[in-house]
Design goal:
Blueprint lengths: L8 H15 L4 H4 L3 E6 L4 E6 L14 H19 L4 E2 L2 E8 L9 E10 L3 E10 L2 E14 L1 E2 L3
Antiparallel strand pairs: 1-2, 2-5, 3-8, 4-7, 5-6, 6-7
């Protein structure tokens, strides 16, 4: 895994979360209040936790499906940014989400993001979201591909 800067992965993730909160206050990345829980560099798996709020519920009282997908996409986007092969952007070009159990508004979500592959132009990741109280029970799973667009100039 190659990172943009010569820092360890934990510091890259913390820096990325902080930059989103500072540069884009009020954005979904800021509202979800991501925190780094654990880094498993050996297995290329990174654990993030985010907050949900009551306004995120659907008419059935559970977390809205689009926001569930956003939680997974954003968590994987943080990791994609940290493993990109150089300076540049990493937009999502494919996201597939499967729903298994509901997330409850007001409860945190734990997201385990695994790096599958990093090439010169594509980054592929998978993710599993669960409740911190039951991390073995997947609420949602996803795979995503991010396109690495190098910085020009």
């Amino acid at each position: 895994m190659v990172s943009v800067e010569n820092k360890n992965m934990e510091q890259l993730i913390l820096d990325r979360i902080r930059k989103v909160q500072e540069r884009v206050p009020g954005s979904i990345g800021d509202i979800l209040q991501y925190k780094l829980v654990r880094c498993d560099d050996e297995n290329k798996t990174y654990y993030l936790q985010c907050s949900t709020q009551d306004w995120m519920r659907n008419p059935f009282g559970i977390l809205h499906g689009g926001l569930c997908a956003t939680i997974l996409d954003h968590a994987m986007g943080i990791i994609a940014y940290c493993v990109r092969p150089g300076k540049g952007q990493v937009p999502t070009i494919n996201l597939q989400v499967s729903y298994h159990r509901p997330l409850i508004p007001g409860e945190d979500a734990l997201v385990a993001v695994k790096v599958i592959s990093v090439t010169r132009s594509l980054i592929t990741l998978s993710a599993v979201a669960s409740l911190p109280s039951a991390p073995e029970k997947a609420c949602m799973t996803a795979t995503a591909t991010f396109f690495y667009k190098p910085e020009v100039g």
